[in-house]
Amino acid sequence: MTEPLALEVLPVLGLPEVEPDTDLGALIAKAVELRDGDVVVVTSKIVSKAEGRMVQAEDREAAIDAEAVRVVARRGRLRIVQNRNGLVMAAAGVDASNTAPGTILLLPVDPDASARAIRARLQELTGCRLGVLITDTFGRAWRSGLTDVAIGAAGVAVLEDHRGRVDSHGNELHMTVTATADEIAAAGDLVKGKATGTPVAVVRGLPGAVTTEDGDGVRPLVRDLQDDLFRLGTSEAIRTAVTMRRTVREFSDEPVHGDAVRRAVAAAVTAPAPHHTTPWRFVLLESEAARTELLDAMLAAWRRDLRELDGWDEERIARRTARGDVLRRAPYLVVPCLVTAGSHHYPDARRAAAEREMFTVAAGAAVQNLLVTLSGEGYGTAWVSSTMFCRDVVREALRLPEDWDPMGAIAVGRPATVPQDRPEREVEGFVVVR
């Protein structure tokens, strides 16, 4: 991008109230003289009005639900959500400002498409090569105050990649990628204002930012979920962290980082436990040889049980044991074990059974902590109970102490596909109130 000698930010004054089906391109072209290389910055609210994206205010909560695809954080009635276009913002951009009393505005359905339509119309009417940004107001993590950002773009290079360039001291840049579209959006907002009825601005002096083609819109600005270190939001989003966990049965070939698993174990062992004990141990099978040795021994024991105890034939055995392939396909396995050292001893079966159940519940809590934390690290998991059916075989294969009881096995890896959304369950079928 060519460095500008000077930058001008001009408000577009005198625009009338926008109604549904307003030709925004014609409206803007009539109100301002545009030059080649200008970027026209348009507040999303007038785009929404022109596209008829207005609903009654009493439907606000339902509108937010309809616009949101994921709740990132919640505090009281405030929700930070991700909408269908990947934008993470308060209330999915549903807004009651600058609209008639009793109504609210939704964001444009496809802001990039809106930007392309306005650009095409402006270029048709002016003969100039222009860029168009659709903007909206965002809050920012760790920063007070609001700023405008680009939510739709056409004909604008939304990012400028400085990686590989050299700074003034001769240092090669490795990380710097500038969000040019957001910087232009914020500059335009300085002259538009929030309450002055000036919804359009022109940023002049950045011809290198304007492209011949419409481009990819703002999609390059939206960080992919797997690369977002803060996708779970604030502590109010812990519930989301739990509910986003999925059982994953197909994994990519990407290796699992042992440090990530150890961080998950550190979270796992904060689970509640009886008598101030620490009844969990986690066997990390990081080598393929260790995984194969264990799974081969377990398969032999499983086949033997089905043949000798259940009387199954070989064909039926083969079909049934194929279900265990999820463990073989995983690049990493964890075997959680229960250790009941510190438990109380009772002479009767009733209390002895209850004592063991206390420790078993603690083991389950630790396993859940592990699964949720690994999900937060971007890994998929599948808890499989099979080690509980052949504990002696597992102890022998892994050379574990006799008092370690394997409590299933956990397959870990990057999901091969994006897990499907899980519909939210109603709690009424699971609770009894007294």
TrEMBL record:
Every Coenzyme F420:L-glutamate ligase-like domain range: 15-205
Source domain of life: Bacteria
InterPro entries membership: F420-0_g-glutamyl_ligase, F420-0_gamma-glut_ligase-dom, F420_FbiB_C, FbiB, Nitroreductase, Nitroreductase-like
GO MF assignments: coenzyme F420-0:L-glutamate ligase activity; GTP binding; metal ion binding; oxidoreductase activity
Keyword line: GTP-binding, Ligase, Magnesium, Manganese, Metal-binding, Multifunctional enzyme, Nucleotide-binding, Oxidoreductase, Potassium
Enzyme class, first EC level, given as a word: ligase
Domain named Nitroreductase: residues: 243-414
EC code(s) of this entry: 6.3.2.31
Any Pfam family matching the protein: F420_ligase
Protein name stated in the entry: Coenzyme F420-0:L-glutamate ligase
Originating organism: Kitasatospora acidiphila
